[in-house]
Design brief:
mainly alpha; 6 helices; disordered N terminus
């Protein structure tokens, strides 16, 4: 699963932010307005829960991928030592350095990814908790006032915590890709060194 797609899914707790004007119903009665808004609140809450569940599964998949990748690089560092006995130090370093850097990037991505997921969990809990409280409110203006900041993309973009999570997602994504790049560089260096030594 592509990490770029995973990170985008982590940030999409709802498929698309709903414009605030969509909250402005023109009902035939106040009771109908409250009923419509409460139904909208339930749908929004369900979308948040579905998006959060997807983000949690994506995080688990990413963590498993990084565990396998760092394990492969660690095993590679120890397994190629016998093949490189007669190789010059420059050739050895061309293999060991990329894989060591790849392990570092894999661990960094895992740690940053865990912090990102924790932040998303906290954000999700606050949103869903607020939505669940709105289901028991019967004041139309209160429902509209509380609901707007939860779904307005402009408000979310200005939120400091949201901006921090966005930056953290970029860091996670960068380390994830770097780990894969270093893995491939190490593989190419190993194959080249072994083929040159046999030639």
């Amino acid at each position: 699963m592509a990490k770029g797609w995973i990170c985008r899914q982590l940030r999409k707790l709802v498929p698309e932010p709903v414009p605030p004007e969509k909250l402005d119903f023109e009902p035939t009665s106040l009771g109908e307005a409250i009923t419509e808004l409460k139904a909208f609140v339930k749908r929004t809450s369900a979308a948040f829960r579905e998006g959060h569940e997807l983000s949690a599964k994506s995080h688990e998949q990413t963590a498993r991928t990084l565990v396998w990748l760092t394990g492969l690089m660690g095993a590679g560092i120890f397994s190629v030592q016998g093949l490189l006995v007669g190789a010059p130090w420059a050739a050895r370093l061309s293999i060991l350095v990329p894989w060591a850097a790849g392990i570092f990037c894999g661990v960094a991505s895992t740690l940053a990814g865990s912090e990102l997921q924790n932040g998303l969990d906290r954000q999700h809990f606050r949103r869903v908790h607020m939505l669940s409280l709105l289901e028991d409110v019967s004041d139309l203006q209160v429902i509209r006032k509380v609901l707007r900041p939860l779904i307005d993309s402009g408000v979310l973009a200005r939120d400091p915590e949201n901006q921090t999570l966005d930056c953290l997602a970029v860091v996670v994504n960068g380390f994830f890709y770097l780990a894969h790049i270093f893995f491939m560089v190490g593989v190419v260096a190993t194959v080249t060194t072994v083929a040159t030594g046999r030639g």
